[in-house]
């Protein structure tokens, strides 16, 4: 892509190779088709695809009839949450929920798994000890808890899993996916939910698959004939993905080179960094910010996606917010209005690519489960549960994402597809899964 911009009464042509927009709908569809191929391969055998397609062993999603008191732990980063949920049954719904957030000491993030989980267990016990008599359980019953563990794992049963690797600053040598939790939370509220997607700092998707369509499944088929699949779709890669020199450089310099390629194109952790890398090259090769390359511009990840979003959403005639961001973050105080306009356009290009690729991923899921066409006049409603800060707060990204999905599906099919925000779905979903798999009869 060629960016044209005026500076000091002359036109500077910056050939920066920002071929980052999946322009035509056809090109985006090709990515979706590649996703479907990899989904089949990942379901066929372990290691058959970059898409892990982990079997969650969850074959019984919440129905809405669950009743009683349930708990959840949500470990997803430097904080974890302990939650208590009161369910009122078919007509009562989610009666009440309370939680506490606890910071994890840095020493426990690089210690042993025993020390980390002992600390979590102690905080859970403290949370329960503060409960009043209204939360006392009947004799013979124990509290039931769901655990959202937002790190790559291989599930071996509904109650056991093997950690693949620590991420997000954790480095522990001995050691319910959040998207699966979001799917459960969405299913409780909307019976037609078939998939859940997290679009936040990272990204992942989970969906409901027919058990007979999982060749790598061994053993008796579940009674429901359904199984939740944790795709780990951040690891999807294909020759059809529009990777640029900036993506390759960022990947090579990352902590996990060659991994999570799809996530590095669409998620909030990386969008701002891609923009920074493009701006740095423009500064070096096209004197975009003057004769001197701003030193701050050379610092990886100094430009965060919330900053990208703020500049992208600046509607003022003089782009005053863009000017402030450039000054406060990059110490660039002399950017002309034309320069600021180019920065906004670059934000738009990178966000558009990410949102269109995310939409392509969802189209891949819909194609895999046969929800991308309308077979009759009474077509079944299809709901995708969405969560994550990128989806929730970056409105231009979100708008492009939904427009692209509608464009790909066509008007008739789009009427049967609904995107619903499952706010805090991962935490609540863990408690709901504890309820739907309760050891006690629900009454």
Automatic annotation (TrEMBL):
Its EC number is 2.7.1.-. GO terms for cellular component: cytosol; mitochondrion. Residues 30-183 form the Hexokinase N-terminal domain. Pathway: Carbohydrate degradation; glycolysis; D-glyceraldehyde 3-phosphate and glycerone phosphate from D-glucose: step 1/4; Carbohydrate metabolism; hexose metabolism. PANTHER family: HEXOKINASE, HEXOKINASE-1. Pfam families: Hexokinase_1, Hexokinase_2. Keywords: ATP-binding, Glycolysis, Kinase, Nucleotide-binding, Transferase. GO terms for molecular function: ATP binding; D-glucose binding; fructokinase activity; glucokinase activity. It is an enzyme of class 2 (transferase). One of its GO terms (biological process) is glucose metabolic process. Residues 195-435 form the Hexokinase C-terminal domain. It comes from the Eukaryota. Transmembrane segments: none annotated. Belongs to the hexokinase family. This is Phosphotransferase.
């Amino acid at each position: 892509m060629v960016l044209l911009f005026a500076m000091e009464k002359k036109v500077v042509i910056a050939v920066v190779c920002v071929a980052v927009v999946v322009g035509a709908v056809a090109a985006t569809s090709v990515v979706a088709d590649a996703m479907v191929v990899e989904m089949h391969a990942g379901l066929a055998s372990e290691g058959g695809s970059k898409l892990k397609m982990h079997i969650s062993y969850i074959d019984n999603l919440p129905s809405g009839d669950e009743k009683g008191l349930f708990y959840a732990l949500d470990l997803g980063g430097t904080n974890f949450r302990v939650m208590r949920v009161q369910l009122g049954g078919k007509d009562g719904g989610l009666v009440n929920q309370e939680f506490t957030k606890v910071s994890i000491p840095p020493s426990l993030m690089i210690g042993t798994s025993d020390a980390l989980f002992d600390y979590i267990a102690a905080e859970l016990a403290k949370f329960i000890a503060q409960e009043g008599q209204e939360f006392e359980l009947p004799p013979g019953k124990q509290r039931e808890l769901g655990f959202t563990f937002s790190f790559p794992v291989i599930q071996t049963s509904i109650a056991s899993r093997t950690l693949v690797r620590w991420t997000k600053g954790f480095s522990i040598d001995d050691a319910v996916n959040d998207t699966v939790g979001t799917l459960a939370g969405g299913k409780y509220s909307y019976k037609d939910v078939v998939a859940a997607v997290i679009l936040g700092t990272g990204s992942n998707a989970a969906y409901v698959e027919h058990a007979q369509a999982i060749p790598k499944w061994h053993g008796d088929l579940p009674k429901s004939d359904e199984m939740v699949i944790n795709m780990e779709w951040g690891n999807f890669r294909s020759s059809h993905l529009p990777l640029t020199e900036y993506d390759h450089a960022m990947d090579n310099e990352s902590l996990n080179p060659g991994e999570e390629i799809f996530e590095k194109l669409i998620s909030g952790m990386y969008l701002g960094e891609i923009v920074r890398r493009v701006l740095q090259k423009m500064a070096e090769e096209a004197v975009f910010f003057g004769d001197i390359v701003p030193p701050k511009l050379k610092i990886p990840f100094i430009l965060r996606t919330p900053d990208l979003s703020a500049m992208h959403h600046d509607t003022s005639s003089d782009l005053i917010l863009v000017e402030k961001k450039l000054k406060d973050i990059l110490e660039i105080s002399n950017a002309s209005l034309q320069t600021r306009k180019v920065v906004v356009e670059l934000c738009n290009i990178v966000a558009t690519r990410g949102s269109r690729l995310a939409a392509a991923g969802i189209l891949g899921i819909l194609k895999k489960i046969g929800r991308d066409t309308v077979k009759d006049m009474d077509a079944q409603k299809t709901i995708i549960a969405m969560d994550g800060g990128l989806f929730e707060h970056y409105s231009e990204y979100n708008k492009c994402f939904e427009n692209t999905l509608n464009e790909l599906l066509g008007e008739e099919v789009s009427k049967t597809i609904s995107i619903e925000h499952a706010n805090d779905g991962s935490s609540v979903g863990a408690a709901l899964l504890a309820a739907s798999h309760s050891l006690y009869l629900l009454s």
